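Discussion board: Methods & Data

I've been asked by a reviewer to show the raw model output for two of the constructs in my manuscript, not just the figures. I'm not sure how much to include, so I'm pasting the format here to get opinions. Each protein appears as its amino acid sequence followed by a line of discrete structure tokens. Is this the kind of thing reviewers expect to see in a supplement, or should I convert it first? Here is construct A:
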Amino acid sequence: MKHAPGSAGRAWLDEAVRKIEADFNRSADTHLIHVPLPRFPGIDLYLKDESSHPTGSLKHRLARSLFLYALCNEWIGPDTCVIEASSGSTAVSEAYFARMLGLRFIAVVPASTAAPKLDAIRFNGGEIHAVDDPRTVYDVAQRLAAETGGHYLDQFTYAERATDWRGNNNIAESIFSQMAEERFPIPSWIVCGAGTGGTSATIGRFVRYQRHATRLCVADPSHSIFHRHFADRALSTLPEGCASCIEGIGRPRVEPSFIASVIDRAIAVADGDSIGAMRALSARLGRSVGGSTGTNLLACMQIVHEMAAAGAEGSVVTLLCDGGERYGCTYYRDDWLMERGLCWQPAETAVRAFLHA
């Protein structure tokens, strides 16, 4: 990889960090949306709307942190080709920051990645390197980095260490700050998915550092390793051919950034149920959301029902990870779902009832 040499390189690095920090200062924090639950008057549900970032997803935070981490380690210089292995959304955000710094960016993505995500990567100046087998994205990204003399950002390794989990406006600090004036300011539960594991690591560590009573639940696709690993730490990979269609979360292997010890619970969600919940929430909000948000909501619904059955009151916070615009050709097409044998209608009906009186 190419390093920034001498004082000239240091000047470039200083300017690169300034540009990223200036972009952050121009962006307001993402909204925290209260979703009333008329059937559960003692429980409040909130969605942290990460779709309002400039690149449209939760991964904007991660991409910013990864670039700052690589810059401050002097792994990236003015001529470095930046490479990432991604299911799409992280690459969209990283392409945005690479273009800001005038750097070439290559995204190694599964060939099955939704076309609108690929279009967004290209729109931000990134290049696409598609692979047929999603398990090869890591090795291909490393090979391209070696061939170009570039830097592999490697979100799956560095996500949990690139973000300052103690504070500095990470997503956990933002959630607790925005909850401060709510009826139940300290959430009983925070629910999030896991792709790299960086978000769950940040939230879990922050909760413990601040000594909050909040518990953390990872909502994980059924065909993912994370919930299996949480239950049995000896499990680290899925069998060949076992994969989820929910982009952005769920992995066939336990990623280095996934820290199971800071998680209190994991709930497995079938892909069809995620789609049904996604569609029900989109109808409730009047705008479309992505599949991973449906996964989160299904887990929230289970937790809320359990709290109500126990006579408990409190708040539950989850993430609206991205908008549904990127999935118009997949999750929002009935024929696409039926071709894959996904049954979403029962979950959609159940979630509609959960969200309405």
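Construct B, same format:
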Amino acid sequence: MNVPETMRAVQIAQYGGPEVLEVTEVAVPVPHAGEVLVQVSAVALNNTDLWTREGAYGRPEEPEALSGWRGPIDFPRIQGADVAGRVVMVGDGVDKSLVARRVVVDPADYDAEGPDANPVGLMGSERDGGYAEYVIASAERVHDVTESPLTDDQLAALPTAYGTALGMIERARLQEGETVLVSGASGGVGLALVQIAHARGARVLAITSESKIDAVREAGAHEVVDRARDVAAQIHMAAPDGIDVALDVVAGDLLRDGLPLLREGGRWVIAGALGGYSVAFDVRRLYLRNAQVIGSAMHTPRHFDLLMHLARRGEIQPVITATFPLDQAAQAQDELARRAHVGKIVLRP
């Protein structure tokens, strides 16, 4: 395939608001040994894009420090973790039959080999991502989804949101028939949690704003809690015997107020801090009920393989709420930050 020498990309050269997103022309990267070059068909937005741009992740020793996902960002950086596209060039040692195949890129960098490795870096934060016409990826991290019935937009919606959701559900050991609470249920991860937990046969209680209740119920929630009212009281009314699992991207007061609602042996899995990262709670609610609080950052390679299996079979249907051209990345991130939507926002380079 003919590949140009330059491409359009959206870079950030410093931490800041949407104004730091700059559409520019850069050289098309060349794949090295073990790598492929992917022509980007669609790249989905995530909260990670906002927090990386803002430097909002902090550091273990300095929570207020400006930082990317795993440390200071090496500027300039092309954002975008979630890429669907087609392979147009391969480096040495890569099977040439991958060229022209439709793929989804696993955006994680892992700490080890093997199916249960932990993610320690993210495309679009620790290395350049998909807010561009082309992106480099390890051949081991591209998954052939040529036969999937999903659109490119839907495929791009999967890696971070659905990968994070599946990682949470797997780490929670969610079982059929259990009662599960999902916070932030109208967002990308939240809606994915609702869909996957419902498909696994769980009874799903979801928390969202009043205007989004119908959309969240349509995604598979059995009961929906209005976050503007007394959330703990509503959960207790909907599940008087308690909940088995909480899948939480909010934390903050919800964690403090919700822990007493866990049943014996319950699991509270956290993958976000939209409601605040500093939390105080009664630790007796943990040890007296043999409960667990579990941190969950994205997915493992095994989780991502399972996600791609679901994608090839069309067993999950991501909701796309809006699409933008690449040069409107700032407007797209503004739309994401307003949180008035249900589902995923996608850029089309």
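Answer (T.O., handling editor elsewhere):
This is acceptable in a supplement if you add a one-line summary per construct. For B, something like: The CA atoms of residues 212 and 253 lie 21 Å apart.
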